[in-house]
Write a structure and sequence with these properties.
The chain has about 300 residues and is α/β, with parallel strands linked by helices. The chain is built from eleven helices and 15 strands. Strands 1, 5, 6, 7, 10, 11, 12, 13, 14 and 15 form a ten-stranded mixed β-sheet that branches. Strands 2, 3, 4, 8 and 9 form a five-stranded mixed β-sheet that branches. α2 links the parallel β5 and β6. α6 packs across α7, α8 packs across α9 and α9 crosses α11.
């Protein structure tokens, strides 16, 4: 079993969907990644920054889930990163109402000594210069570096982002971002072009339409489980990344065949995440629930067919 180092925002989110709205709740990429990965009982740590307005109960929640929080810097007199968004009726599109970078604007990550040899580094969606700083602080070359990024960094920090992409093994982005990064409309062509930038594995997330995994000319497709109720999609991609990287840290197997399993485990946990606001569903998720839904994934995708 390998150590997992998670780098990402720890934040406040205020969310409005057709089903309700919240005041400030726990958000940011890192808590979703960490809580999802914790379902595999791996040793993990979060590198991030918050202000002194960040409640101790949220830090305690992460620590109770066996996540090392010693590298979450608390800035005295600082304010925590805040994001507010409103989802449209189809839940696939949203409007950002407000973004306050606050302490995240000057974030200088510091990797804890006991995680400078982590087997897996999960770079959550952040400024590429921060992601690069973390890679450079690793004393032992990680077995796997996973990158999550978004179109904002492609628009504004493309040169820095390309430097990070060249150093990672896996990139996870959505279909729109894959097309923007590659300049190709076909996702097969897009993945092939992104491979040439550095990553051995390309994961393209398609929301309610599942995820694609590309490697060395091979393609694997994982469906999204059809759900009766989708309440809040915030953090679903981060939860996927946490399940994906957590499973790989647990199994210590980085083959294409095992990556397929990791994609299914990531999709499985993401399907729970959308059922309640914020991280609430992940906090109270039992092993039995996870196992039962994995069986649903299996029955959804497995079939016998006579090839004549």
């Amino acid at each position: 079993m390998g150590k997992l180092l998670i780098v990402g925002s720890v934040a406040f989110d205020a969310i409005e969907t057709p089903f309700g709205k919240t005041d400030k709740i726990l958000g940011g990429a890192a808590p979703f990644i960490g809580l999802a990965a914790s379902k595999f009982n791996v040793e993990s740590a979060i590198v991030s920054v918050v202000g002194d307005d960040f409640p101790q109960k949220y830090l305690d929640l992460l620590a109770e889930n066996n996540i090392d929080i010693s590298a979450i810097e608390v800035v005295e007199g600082g304010k925590t990163f805040f994001w507010s968004g409103k989802y449209h009726n189809d839940l696939n599109s949203r409007d950002t109402l407000e973004t306050q970078l606050n302490v995240l604007a000057d974030f200088n990550p510091k990797v804890p000594e006991n995680f400078k040899d982590a087997e897996i580094v999960m770079l959550g969606n952040l400024n590429p210069s921060v992601q690069l700083s973390v890679i450079e602080q690793m004393e032992v070359k990680p077995k796997l570096i996973v990158l999550d990024t978004m179109n904002f960094w492609m628009d504004s920090f493309l040169e820095d982002l390309m430097e990070v992409i060249a150093k990672v093994d896996v990139i996870t982005i959505n279909d729109e971002e894959a097309r923007q990064l590659s300049g190709e409309y076909s996702l097969v062509k897009a993945a092939a072009k992104i491979h040439t930038m550095g990553p051995k594995y390309v994961v393209i997330k398609k929301g309610e339409h599942g995820a694609l995994l590309f490697h060395n000319g091979n393609v694997f497709f994982a469906p999204a489980l059809p759900l009766e109720e989708v309440f809040d999609p915030t953090g679903a991609g981060d939860t996927f990344a946490g399940g994906f990287s957590g499973y790989l840290a647990k199994t210590d197997d980085y083959s294409f065949e095992n990556m397929k399993n990791a994609v299914i485990h990531g999709s499985n946990l993401a399907s729970f995440n959308v059922e309640k606001f914020g991280t609430k569903r992940l906090q109270n998720l039992s092993h039995d629930e996870v196992f039962k839904r994995l069986k649903q994934f299996k029955s959804l995708t497995q079939f016998d067919i006579k090839l004549t």
